[in-house]
Amino acid sequence: xxxxxxxxxxxxxxxxxxxxxxxxxxxxxxxxxxxxxxxxxxxxxxxxxxxxxxxxxxxxxxxxxxxxxxxxxxxxxxxxxxxxxxxxxxxxxxxxxxxxxxxxxxxxxxxxxxxxxxxxx
Length: 121
Prior knowledge:
- The protein is an all-alpha fold and 121 residues long.
- The chain has 2 domains: 1-38, no CATH class; 43-121, no CATH class.
- The chain is built from 7 helices and no strands.
- The radius of gyration is 17 Å and the shape is elongated.
């Protein structure tokens, strides 16, 4: 397949792929890239993940577990997809991570507290 055909195929995909193809393969203007990246929270994979956030602000009913669907892993995926900084749902999830993981010594440890926090929040 020709390079231009591959790029067109990528540009026809999900906004999470499209903004990165515009930036990395097309060298599009920053304003074009940012406008496309903003669609990630409203359309496609990013919007579907954001829609799965529960009323308590978590994903997968947990902070660190269950693995791959918990708040920690969903936020990592949303970041990789390009959900913009300042997204209210992502910020709420991040606040929960900090609240759940904060230890008395100032460190952060999600593993020991994640189960207890999941049950109380």
